[in-house]
Amino acid sequence: MKNICLNMERFSLLAFIFIPITFTYGFNGESFELECPDECDCHYFRINWVTDCSESNLTEIPYDELSMSVYILDLNGNNITTLKAFPGDIKMRRLQIANNRLTRVDREAFKGLEYLIDVDLSGNNISYVDPEAFLDSRGLLNVELQDNPISVVDGPFLISTTLQYLDISSCNLSEINPQFFDNLTSLTTVDLSNNPLKTLDGSVFDVLTSLETLKLNDCKLTTISESVFSTSINLKNLELAGNQLSNTNWPELLGKMIRLEYLNLRKSGITSLSEDTFSNCTNLVTLILADNELRDLDVAAILGSSVDHLELLDLSNCKIQGPISGEAFANASRLKSLYLSGNPLFAPDLQEALEPLPKLERLFLSNCGLRNLPDNFNVFDNLQELDISHNPLVNVFTKLLAPLEKLEYLNMGYSNLSYIGPDSFSKMTSMKRLVLSGNDLLSLEAGLFGNLTQLTTLELELCGLKRPLNANVFFKNLTYMDLREIRLGGNPLVIPDSGPVFPKQLSQVTILDLSNCNITSLNADAFKNTENLTELNLAGNRIKSEYDSLSFLERLHQLEKINLSNNNLTTIDPQVFVNNPKLHSLNLIGNPFVCDCKIAEMWDWANMIKGNLDVLIGAKSAERDIVVKGNKKKKHLYCHYNETQLRNMSLPINKTVPGRRPFMKPRELSFANRTWAKYVRESGCEPVVKILRPVALVAELFDFNDGHISSGTIVLAITLATTTIVMTLRLFRRRDAPAEDTENNRKLR
Ligand SMILES: *[C@@H]1O[C@H](CO)[C@@H](O)[C@H](O)[C@H]1NC(C)=O
Ligand SMILES: *[C@@H]1O[C@H](CO)[C@@H](O)[C@H](O)[C@H]1NC(C)=O
Ligand SMILES: *[C@@H]1O[C@H](CO)[C@@H](O)[C@H](O)[C@H]1NC(C)=O
Ligand SMILES: *[C@@H]1O[C@H](CO)[C@@H](O)[C@H](O)[C@H]1NC(C)=O
Ligand SMILES: *[C@@H]1O[C@H](CO)[C@@H](O)[C@H](O)[C@H]1NC(C)=O
Ligand SMILES: *[C@@H]1O[C@H](CO)[C@@H](O)[C@H](O)[C@H]1NC(C)=O
Ligand SMILES: *[C@@H]1O[C@H](CO)[C@@H](O)[C@H](O)[C@H]1NC(C)=O
Ligand SMILES: *[C@@H]1O[C@H](CO)[C@@H](O)[C@H](O)[C@H]1NC(C)=O
Ligand SMILES: *[C@@H]1O[C@H](CO)[C@@H](O)[C@H](O)[C@H]1NC(C)=O
Ligand SMILES: *[C@@H]1O[C@H](CO)[C@@H](O)[C@H](O)[C@H]1NC(C)=O
Ligand SMILES: *[C@@H]1O[C@H](CO)[C@@H](O)[C@H](O)[C@H]1NC(C)=O
Ligand SMILES: *[C@@H]1O[C@H](CO)[C@@H](O)[C@H](O)[C@H]1NC(C)=O
């Protein structure tokens, strides 16, 4: 056994040396036969060529360095002020220039962009948009222009027969002229939020017969003409939060919206709603009425008999002056989530009102002045979350919880509890998920969780706990077979210098959150009793790059995800992950890494050994960064040069290092922070180990075993060979990808 273990280490080391041989074509993780501007990182996203020049201090677009096959061009967060024409043959699909300093959108700049699908121009200084700007883009689907001082638009805003998604929120528009949408008839989603519109008149949306989602939050609306949505029969989602709509004729306004599924009227100055308000909205699923003054609300009457699809009803902070009638929710038997937080309520009323809601999954009774709880909570077979936080429940605790014997999910978070008696949960043997986060508990009573033998998830975030879970809060010698997830984030834990952190009872735990726990180090045996962890969150601690500081990883053979972001790591060696073969997600963002060649090693490790740069979170654009409404500002992996390094630095130009793409243009380093991607390119760091002859390597592997070839070795050798073949195939598939892609697209169009 020991021999195999030794071999294992040896194997990983060998694999590390060996596999790069097939990858001399790679740079920054991908093959580079497509052109890439010097300042940018380029890679494939699925089969598409991404040119990522975001946050690179550019003042103009590197037009003449772009590949004609660029699929996504990301220029977010630069200093670009003007746009010129793109090269005629470019096949760009998505153009992102958010958070720059553009002032105009002219036709010239987008001329000939026939393939363009998505444009993100948000967060600029744009005051003029040429309605004909996208005439050539005959497949245009999405345009983002939010956060620009557009202010005034005369006539049609844009001309596009295909555009489906338009975000023009926060554009200081005070009026939507009658022709505004005339030539955008395919729109399905429009966001007009946070424009000072004040009124909505007549027929502006009439041409938008495909409209499904309309957002008009915070538009200072006081009057909405009754006919404004009269042709919006396809509208499914309507948001009108944060306006002053006390004088609205709701039955007329909503009367034609028979397909409406989601309606948000939060904080809209509504004081009363008549009985027929929603009578034609028979498909309503979510209704948000929170933060209105519905003092004498008769819930039953408002919901009427037609809202029988309603699943979520939010009546938080509505100053409802009970009693809620017994029939209040009689018509809402499908209701899954009910928010009554912030209304003064009494237990007996609740008991009656909630009776018809057996399907309820989430009930929010936070801050309701409840001194007692209804006796009938055991009728809720499906209740997942009962939130009774912020109620004056403190002293009579145990008794109050007594009726909750059948409860499976209880959220008592943020309830100012400083003590929980040892018997509090002794009868709640069905409990699966217990949330006690946000209470200043400091310590836990012996036996507190003893009877919770069905527990799957325990959340104790921000509880001021110093000692991680003690053995004595559980039954002695009992393994909690179902307990899989423990969340202890935000506790100032004191970790022992040696020995396991958690007791044996928790040996089945797979997900452990220890983020923001003031941890400076974890000993090698820290997870001895919880060595089957698959997900470990250690973000926001103070773990350093000292010798052995990550040795706790050696035990975690099942580990798949680890979050080490925002710690105090200055360097990291891929060798520390040698015993975590299943690892597929490593987050190192926000550490004070020094720019050294270990970073290039990590890069090669992700790319060659793991076969996927995505393993290293922040190494390149994530999927969520390159979609509509994606992250405008990315979380990159950074390293920094120290002052001495910076002063003595001369960047290698045209230096060819196997596996890296060199810079072509002379450049100077003026600032210390580099993304890992850029650093790996400019560093000139050699690939880790010199290329060795594979045959010699395998021979060495066998040799190591003194002539006896153990089955372990054979398995390892086969694995090694297979990996190489698979990865070689991968590489070739990727290199073929762009041609295939353009071919497909040509066929499509
Ligand atoms: C843009 O330029 C200004 C000054 O020229 C500079 O202060 C600012 O940091 C630049 N912004 C970016 C994102 O590079
Ligand atoms: C951006 O470029 C300007 C000059 O073009 C320079 O003054 C500034 O320091 C640069 N900022 C960064 C963050 O590199
Ligand atoms: C814009 O819409 C108006 C009204 O439907 C129509 O008369 C006009 O021809 C359209 N313009 C273009 C360029 O499609
Ligand atoms: C509600 O729907 C009915 C039948 O579909 C229709 O006759 C009535 O006019 C609608 N109400 C409003 C206010 O549009
Ligand atoms: C729960 O624990 C208490 C002691 O805390 C014990 O008396 C009781 O029998 C246990 N079991 C059940 C099902 O309540
Ligand atoms: C727990 O198990 C150990 C060894 O298996 C035994 O010696 C000890 O008495 C047990 N304790 C209890 C409380 O059952
Ligand atoms: C965090 O740990 C340090 C010692 O490592 C200690 O001095 C400090 O008080 C702890 N912080 C908190 C909030 O407990
Ligand atoms: C981890 O899982 C394996 C297989 O399921 C099991 O044999 C082993 O005992 C587990 N480890 C612990 C500490 O429970
Ligand atoms: C990080 O480590 C350095 C020394 O390596 C130390 O000076 C610094 O205080 C640490 N930072 C934190 C937040 O613990
Ligand atoms: C800066 O980095 C160089 C090279 O890595 C190193 O020799 C030097 O000690 C560092 N200086 C400081 C002040 O950390
Ligand atoms: C680097 O090589 C490219 C092409 O091989 C050449 O155009 C460029 O001038 C070279 N740069 C320098 C600084 O030598
Ligand atoms: C470098 O980045 C870190 C965060 O990653 C930031 O705190 C620091 O201010 C940056 N330094 C410079 C010189 O830009």
Automatic annotation (TrEMBL):
Superkingdom assignment: Eukaryota
Alphabetical keyword list: Leucine-rich repeat, Membrane, Repeat, Transmembrane, Transmembrane helix
Pfam families: LRR_1, LRR_5, LRR_6, LRR_8
Gene3D superfamilies given in the database record: Ribonuclease Inhibitor (3.80.10.10)
InterPro entries named in the record: Leu-rich_rpt (IPR001611), Leu-rich_rpt_typical-subtyp (IPR003591), LRR_5 (IPR026906), LRR_dom_sf (IPR032675), SLRP (IPR050333)
GO CC list: extracellular matrix; extracellular space
Spans through the membrane: 714-732
Protein name per its UniProtKB record: Carboxypeptidase N subunit 2-like
Organism: Galleria mellonella (Greater wax moth)
